Amino acid sequence: MAKQFRTILVPVDFSVNTGTAIARALLMVPPDGATIHLLHVQRIGAGGYWRKITQFFRGLSWKQVRAAIKRSELKLLELKDAIEATTEHAKVEVAVCHGQSVEDTIIRKAIDLRADLLVLGKRSQHTTFPQLNTVVPSRIAQASGVPVLTAKPGALHSSLQKVVMPVSTRFPANKLALIAAIRRQRDLQVQLVIFADHDTDKPFPRQSLLAIFKILKGQAGGKVNYVVLHGRDKVKALLEYTRSIDADMVVVDPGAETKLTGWSNRHLSDMLPPHSKTMVLAVR
Q1: Domains (ranges, CATH) in the chain?
Q2: Can you give 223-279 as a three-state secondary structure string?
Q3: pTM, two decimal places
Q4: Residue 54 in contact with residue 44, Cβ under 8 Å?
Q5: Which residues pair with 150 in a beta bridge?
Q6: Given strand 279-282, what is the order of strands in its sheet?
Q7: 171 beta partners
Q8: Which residue has the higher pLDDT, 217 or 110?
Q9: Which residues does residue 117 pair with via DSSP β-bridges, in sequence order?
Q10: What's the pLDDT tens digit per position in 224-246?
């Protein structure tokens, strides 16, 4: 069955991330419509013992917590009205949640909605202290099973024309389905990437690269090419290549194709600066 972006989840924090995520989500809405779910995770009022400690030191009462939630709901309703006033193809639903971590709440909501796509605006870039990342797109994609598109502010007004897709030891059925869904709306140039160090010694990449190439060539719109990359750190090589061709999007597995080699917990999306136009689509 052809992939369709019928249910799109957009976490909202009312910062520049929100505008970026909503803009990219709207571009993924098919011509015959979709539902965009705006989710805001209220940081105050976390549950359990920690909530009591936090409220004690911050002087927060439940009345203040409920008031903060109400303000967030009103902001979401304003966003809903603005979106529905500018497009006839998208219906908007809103929700405010609290009591768990931001990442856990996003994962739970994506699963509950059975979302087809999650669009995450992410300006921050914690590369020196990666443990400061409270929301890691690859973790969300792995835990929820929902494709996660991460966009930095630099992608706000950029076009989507050039896509990079690495080919590894597993047949990328989900990647191909998502690329097909995007290509139905626009012409894309797809750049397949295979790594020289280990994968070329295995039968799958050698035998399947041509098959994948033919599948993509058979889809409507755009061109398909492939390149062989070298380097022990595949994610680093992929990042450097993506930058070198000024790609608009890289489609990766949220496991081996996103985490850089080394002691730190650095991921591909966090290595891109806020002004980068390159989006990362993590697909399990």
Answers
A1: 7-121 (3.40.50.620), 156-282 (3.40.50.620)
A2: EEEEEEECCCCHHHHHHHHHHHCCCCEEEECCCCCCECCCCCCCEHHHHCCCCCCCE
A3: 0.87
A4: yes
A5: 120, 280
A6: 90-98, 34-42, 7-11, 117-121, 148-151, 279-282, 249-252, 162-166, 189-195, 223-229
A7: none
A8: 110
A9: 8
A10: 998 988 877 888 889 999 999 99
